[in-house]
Design a protein that fits this description.
Layout lengths: L1 E5 L9 H15 L3 E7 L6 H4 L3 E4 L1 E3 L7 E3 L3 H10 L4 E4 L4 H12 L4 E4 L19 H11 L5 E4 L2 H9 L6 E3 L13 H13 L28
Parallel strand pairs: 1-2, 1-6, 2-3, 6-7, 7-8, 8-9
Antiparallel strand pairs: 4-5
Length: 229
């Protein structure tokens, strides 16, 4: 199949969504499918290396999250690409600009429309006017609206699925956990030696368990849960 992935967030931006898309792309390609990325512009992107694979559309920085960008034009070009690349299915990964573009094109070209719901927006409303502008109820209505006529909505976890059901999303919902390659975590003699050296520097014994978390120190990340284990 020829699969068009529509996303506002993609490499070189650093985020869980971008990493999830990269993993999906890799595995679908391994299975013999052709994956094309439709996304927003990024001044740091290597457009030469991306040529023929990643298609970027003019965008502006999002007001509340400046590192994220929202496309503002490109419908005709995207529609032409859908036909030129002979896209079989559209898979959106955002509920914002590129998501709406993907949804529109799925209807225009009568293609299957699949959506992955990555973000629990209720956990982020405190960033916007300190939670006074958006409410959980509003987020539910907007989510339900976006997911209308989707052929399938993918939830990364059971919690996300329950949330979508609470929003009364009518489309079929399936849970498909975000994959991760374990190869990068396989231990080697060198990595074990390095770990022992770091533990020694920190005054830890070789048998002391160590938990590492990589991410933003933000309220929605629930870092305090690590200290309750």
């Amino acid at each position: 199949m020829n699969i068009g992935i529509f996303t506002d967030t993609y490499f070189p931006q650093i985020s869980g969504v971008a990493a999830s898309i990269a993993t999906l792309d890799k595995e679908l390609t391994r299975l013999g499918h052709n994956v094309y990325i439709f996304t927003s512009t990024d001044s740091m992107a290597n457009t030469v290396k991306e040529q023929g694979k990643v298609f970027r559309f003019p965008s502006l920085a999002a007001r509340f999250v400046p590192e994220r960008r929202l496309a503002f034009k490109g419908t005709r070009r995207a529609s032409h690409l859908i036909k030129t690349l002979d896209i079989d299915v559209i898979h959106t990964q955002t509920e914002f600009s590129m998501g709406w573009l993907g949804k529109h094109l799925s209807r225009k070209h009568r293609l299957p429309f699949i959506h992955t719901y990555h973000t629990m927006y209720e956990d982020y409303i405190h960033y916007i006017a300190k939670g006074r502008l958006l409410t959980p109820s509003m987020i539910g209505k907007l989510t339900k609206w976006f997911c209308r006529r989707a052929d399938l909505v993918i939830a990364p976890t059971e919690k996300v699925k329950r949330t979508l059901e609470r929003y009364h999303v009518a489309a079929p919902i399936k849970v498909a956990p975000t994959g991760i390659s374990l190869k990068q975590f396989q231990r080697t003699d060198e990595s074990v030696r390095t770990a022992m050296e770091i533990k020694a520097q920190l005054g830890l014994s070789a048998d002391d368990p160590v938990v590492v978390s990589i991410g933003r120190m933000a309220e929605e990340k629930n870092m305090q849960a690590l200290f309750k284990l």
